[in-house]
Amino acid sequence: MSGASITDDDTVWRFSFRPLTTADLPLLHQWVARPHWTEWWGEAPSLAEVEADYGPWIADPAKVQPHIALLDGQPFAYIQSYVAKDSGGGWWADETDPGVRGIDQSIADAAHLGRGLGTAMVKAFVAKLFSDPQVTHIQTDPDPRNARAIRCYEKAGFRPIGEVLTPDGTALLMICKRPEQP
Ligand SMILES: CC(C)(COP(=O)(O)OP(=O)(O)OC[C@H]1O[C@@H](n2cnc3c(N)ncnc32)[C@H](O)[C@@H]1OP(=O)(O)O)[C@@H](O)C(=O)NCCC(=O)NCCS
To answer: What distance in angstroms lies between residue 172's CA and the mean position of ligand 1's atoms?
Structure first.
Protein backbone atom coordinates (compact mmCIF):
# COMPACT_ATOMS: atom_id res chain seq x y z
CA MET A 1 0.00 0.00 0.00
CA SER A 2 1.26 3.51 -0.64
CA GLY A 3 -0.04 6.80 0.67
CA ALA A 4 0.17 10.49 -0.04
CA SER A 5 -1.10 13.61 1.66
CA ILE A 6 -2.48 16.23 -0.69
CA THR A 7 -3.04 19.67 0.75
CA ASP A 8 -5.68 21.96 -0.73
CA ASP A 9 -5.77 25.24 1.18
CA ASP A 10 -6.35 24.19 4.79
CA THR A 11 -7.58 20.65 4.05
CA VAL A 12 -5.31 17.61 4.08
CA TRP A 13 -6.64 14.44 2.47
CA ARG A 14 -4.80 11.21 2.95
CA PHE A 15 -5.13 8.78 0.05
CA SER A 16 -3.69 5.32 -0.17
CA PHE A 17 -4.03 2.62 -2.78
CA ARG A 18 -4.23 -1.13 -2.43
CA PRO A 19 -4.57 -3.79 -5.11
CA LEU A 20 -8.13 -4.90 -5.87
CA THR A 21 -8.89 -8.40 -4.54
CA THR A 22 -11.60 -10.91 -5.37
CA ALA A 23 -13.19 -10.02 -2.00
CA ASP A 24 -13.76 -6.48 -3.37
CA LEU A 25 -15.74 -7.61 -6.42
CA PRO A 26 -19.23 -7.57 -4.81
CA LEU A 27 -18.53 -3.98 -3.67
CA LEU A 28 -17.25 -3.00 -7.12
CA HIS A 29 -20.36 -4.61 -8.61
CA GLN A 30 -22.47 -2.23 -6.49
CA TRP A 31 -20.38 0.77 -7.55
CA VAL A 32 -20.53 0.11 -11.29
CA ALA A 33 -24.35 0.10 -11.16
CA ARG A 34 -24.54 3.65 -9.79
CA PRO A 35 -25.88 6.27 -12.22
CA HIS A 36 -22.75 8.45 -12.09
CA TRP A 37 -20.76 5.38 -13.25
CA THR A 38 -23.17 4.05 -15.89
CA GLU A 39 -23.31 7.55 -17.39
CA TRP A 40 -19.67 7.12 -18.51
CA TRP A 41 -18.88 3.40 -18.15
CA GLY A 42 -22.03 2.12 -19.86
CA GLU A 43 -24.65 -0.41 -18.81
CA ALA A 44 -24.15 -2.00 -15.38
CA PRO A 45 -22.56 -5.45 -15.63
CA SER A 46 -23.70 -8.49 -13.62
CA LEU A 47 -21.50 -9.76 -10.78
CA ALA A 48 -20.42 -12.63 -13.05
CA GLU A 49 -19.36 -10.09 -15.69
CA VAL A 50 -17.45 -8.06 -13.08
CA GLU A 51 -15.68 -11.26 -11.98
CA ALA A 52 -14.87 -12.13 -15.60
CA ASP A 53 -13.60 -8.61 -16.35
CA TYR A 54 -11.52 -7.93 -13.24
CA GLY A 55 -10.58 -11.45 -12.06
CA PRO A 56 -7.84 -11.96 -14.67
CA TRP A 57 -6.22 -8.60 -13.78
CA ILE A 58 -6.28 -9.53 -10.08
CA ALA A 59 -4.65 -12.87 -10.90
CA ASP A 60 -2.07 -11.32 -13.25
CA PRO A 61 -1.58 -7.54 -12.93
CA ALA A 62 1.22 -7.38 -15.53
CA LYS A 63 -0.86 -5.40 -18.03
CA VAL A 64 -3.60 -3.81 -15.89
CA GLN A 65 -3.20 -3.01 -12.20
CA PRO A 66 -6.64 -2.57 -10.58
CA HIS A 67 -6.76 -0.73 -7.24
CA ILE A 68 -9.13 0.45 -4.56
CA ALA A 69 -8.33 4.03 -3.54
CA LEU A 70 -8.78 4.61 0.17
CA LEU A 71 -9.48 7.99 1.72
CA ASP A 72 -8.44 7.98 5.36
CA GLY A 73 -8.52 4.18 5.18
CA GLN A 74 -12.04 3.86 3.75
CA PRO A 75 -12.83 2.59 0.21
CA PHE A 76 -13.33 5.74 -1.85
CA ALA A 77 -12.86 4.92 -5.54
CA TYR A 78 -11.81 2.40 -8.12
CA ILE A 79 -8.59 3.37 -9.91
CA GLN A 80 -6.50 1.34 -12.32
CA SER A 81 -3.23 1.76 -14.12
CA TYR A 82 -2.16 -0.09 -17.24
CA VAL A 83 0.87 -0.51 -19.44
CA ALA A 84 -0.17 1.13 -22.71
CA LYS A 85 2.24 -0.76 -24.99
CA ASP A 86 0.91 -4.15 -26.16
CA SER A 87 -2.46 -3.57 -24.44
CA GLY A 88 -4.16 -5.68 -27.11
CA GLY A 89 -7.80 -5.58 -28.09
CA GLY A 90 -7.23 -2.58 -30.34
CA TRP A 91 -6.05 -0.35 -27.48
CA TRP A 92 -3.01 1.93 -28.01
CA ALA A 93 -1.75 -0.09 -30.97
CA ASP A 94 0.67 2.68 -32.01
CA GLU A 95 2.39 2.90 -28.60
CA THR A 96 6.04 1.82 -28.70
CA ASP A 97 7.25 3.21 -25.32
CA PRO A 98 7.12 0.54 -22.57
CA GLY A 99 7.26 3.32 -19.95
CA VAL A 100 3.84 4.79 -20.75
CA ARG A 101 1.16 4.09 -18.16
CA GLY A 102 -2.52 4.88 -18.41
CA ILE A 103 -5.07 5.47 -15.66
CA ASP A 104 -8.87 5.16 -15.31
CA GLN A 105 -10.84 6.03 -12.21
CA SER A 106 -14.27 6.66 -10.71
CA ILE A 107 -15.34 7.82 -7.26
CA ALA A 108 -17.68 5.40 -5.47
CA ASP A 109 -20.11 7.79 -3.78
CA ALA A 110 -21.92 10.48 -5.77
CA ALA A 111 -21.88 12.71 -2.68
CA HIS A 112 -18.10 12.95 -3.05
CA LEU A 113 -18.15 14.30 -6.62
CA GLY A 114 -17.09 17.83 -7.49
CA ARG A 115 -15.37 18.58 -4.17
CA GLY A 116 -11.77 18.42 -5.35
CA LEU A 117 -11.27 14.89 -4.04
CA GLY A 118 -10.83 13.35 -7.50
CA THR A 119 -8.08 15.84 -8.30
CA ALA A 120 -6.29 15.04 -5.04
CA MET A 121 -6.67 11.29 -5.60
CA VAL A 122 -5.34 11.45 -9.18
CA LYS A 123 -2.38 13.56 -8.06
CA ALA A 124 -1.56 11.01 -5.37
CA PHE A 125 -1.87 8.06 -7.79
CA VAL A 126 0.27 9.84 -10.41
CA ALA A 127 2.95 10.43 -7.76
CA LYS A 128 2.83 6.74 -6.85
CA LEU A 129 3.23 5.72 -10.52
CA PHE A 130 6.13 8.15 -11.08
CA SER A 131 7.93 6.64 -8.08
CA ASP A 132 8.80 3.91 -10.59
CA PRO A 133 11.73 5.41 -12.56
CA GLN A 134 10.77 3.38 -15.63
CA VAL A 135 7.51 5.33 -16.05
CA THR A 136 7.99 8.02 -18.71
CA HIS A 137 4.54 9.61 -18.83
CA ILE A 138 0.97 8.89 -17.81
CA GLN A 139 -2.08 9.12 -20.01
CA THR A 140 -5.81 9.14 -19.46
CA ASP A 141 -8.62 9.12 -21.99
CA PRO A 142 -11.95 10.61 -20.84
CA ASP A 143 -14.99 10.86 -23.05
CA PRO A 144 -14.69 14.29 -24.74
CA ARG A 145 -18.13 15.16 -23.30
CA ASN A 146 -17.05 14.40 -19.70
CA ALA A 147 -16.19 17.99 -18.82
CA ARG A 148 -15.96 17.28 -15.08
CA ALA A 149 -13.39 14.53 -15.59
CA ILE A 150 -11.40 16.61 -18.10
CA ARG A 151 -11.28 19.56 -15.71
CA CYS A 152 -10.23 17.25 -12.86
CA TYR A 153 -7.38 15.77 -14.90
CA GLU A 154 -6.22 19.24 -16.01
CA LYS A 155 -6.05 20.29 -12.36
CA ALA A 156 -4.10 17.10 -11.60
CA GLY A 157 -1.44 18.00 -14.19
CA PHE A 158 -2.68 16.42 -17.44
CA ARG A 159 -2.90 18.35 -20.69
CA PRO A 160 -5.12 17.49 -23.64
CA ILE A 161 -3.33 16.09 -26.71
CA GLY A 162 -6.28 15.47 -29.04
CA GLU A 163 -9.14 13.16 -29.76
CA VAL A 164 -8.36 9.51 -30.50
CA LEU A 165 -10.49 6.58 -31.60
CA THR A 166 -10.48 3.74 -29.05
CA PRO A 167 -12.40 0.44 -28.94
CA ASP A 168 -14.79 2.27 -26.56
CA GLY A 169 -15.31 5.17 -28.98
CA THR A 170 -13.84 8.65 -29.31
CA ALA A 171 -11.76 9.77 -26.33
CA LEU A 172 -9.74 12.83 -25.41
CA LEU A 173 -6.14 11.70 -24.92
CA MET A 174 -4.55 13.59 -22.02
CA ILE A 175 -0.94 13.29 -20.86
CA CYS A 176 0.91 14.06 -17.63
CA LYS A 177 4.66 14.29 -18.09
CA ARG A 178 7.14 13.18 -15.45
CA PRO A 179 7.98 16.20 -13.27
CA GLU A 180 11.37 17.79 -13.97
CA GLN A 181 14.18 16.18 -12.04
CA PRO A 182 16.00 18.56 -9.65
C1 LIG B 1 -14.13 12.12 -12.88
C2 LIG B 1 -13.98 12.21 -11.37
C3 LIG B 1 -12.98 11.15 -10.89
C4 LIG B 1 -13.46 13.60 -11.00
O5 LIG B 1 -13.39 13.70 -9.60
P6 LIG B 1 -14.12 14.95 -8.85
O7 LIG B 1 -13.76 14.85 -7.43
O8 LIG B 1 -15.58 14.94 -9.17
O9 LIG B 1 -13.41 16.19 -9.56
P10 LIG B 1 -12.90 17.54 -8.86
O11 LIG B 1 -13.93 18.03 -7.92
O12 LIG B 1 -11.53 17.32 -8.33
O13 LIG B 1 -12.78 18.49 -10.13
C14 LIG B 1 -13.92 18.67 -10.97
C15 LIG B 1 -13.83 20.00 -11.71
O16 LIG B 1 -14.76 19.99 -12.78
C17 LIG B 1 -15.67 21.05 -12.62
N18 LIG B 1 -16.95 20.58 -13.11
C19 LIG B 1 -17.88 19.85 -12.48
N20 LIG B 1 -18.90 19.60 -13.32
C21 LIG B 1 -18.58 20.18 -14.49
C22 LIG B 1 -19.23 20.27 -15.74
N23 LIG B 1 -20.41 19.68 -15.95
N24 LIG B 1 -18.60 20.96 -16.72
C25 LIG B 1 -17.42 21.55 -16.53
N26 LIG B 1 -16.75 21.47 -15.36
C27 LIG B 1 -17.33 20.80 -14.36
C28 LIG B 1 -15.66 21.37 -11.15
O29 LIG B 1 -16.12 22.69 -10.92
C30 LIG B 1 -14.17 21.20 -10.86
O31 LIG B 1 -13.40 22.24 -11.40
P32 LIG B 1 -12.97 23.56 -10.52
O33 LIG B 1 -12.27 23.06 -9.29
O34 LIG B 1 -12.07 24.34 -11.44
O35 LIG B 1 -14.22 24.29 -10.18
C36 LIG B 1 -15.35 11.99 -10.65
O37 LIG B 1 -16.20 13.08 -10.99
C38 LIG B 1 -16.05 10.70 -11.02
O39 LIG B 1 -15.72 9.66 -10.48
N40 LIG B 1 -17.08 10.80 -11.91
C41 LIG B 1 -17.95 9.72 -12.22
C42 LIG B 1 -17.39 8.70 -13.23
C43 LIG B 1 -16.45 9.31 -14.23
O44 LIG B 1 -16.76 10.24 -14.94
N45 LIG B 1 -15.26 8.70 -14.30
C46 LIG B 1 -14.19 9.17 -15.17
C47 LIG B 1 -14.15 8.47 -16.43
S48 LIG B 1 -12.84 9.11 -17.44
So the answer is: 15
Fold that domain 2-177 belongs to in CATH: Aminopeptidase (3.40.630)
Instruction: State which amino acid sits at residue 136.
Output: T
- What is the pTM for the complete model shown? 0.94
With a 6 Å cutoff on the Cβ, whether 152 touches ligand 1 is yes
Residue ranges covered by each domain of the chain: 2-177
**Looking only at Cα atoms, what is the longest distance across the chain?**
48
Task: Tell me the mean pLDDT in the region 55-67.
Answer: 98
- Give the whole-number percent of the chain exceeding pLDDT 90: 91
Among 103, 115, 148, name the best residue to mutate to test ligand 1's pocket (greatest count of ligand atoms within 8 A of Cβ). 148
Contact 122/116 with Cβ under 8 angstroms?
no
Residue of the CA atom closest to atom 1 of ligand 1: 149
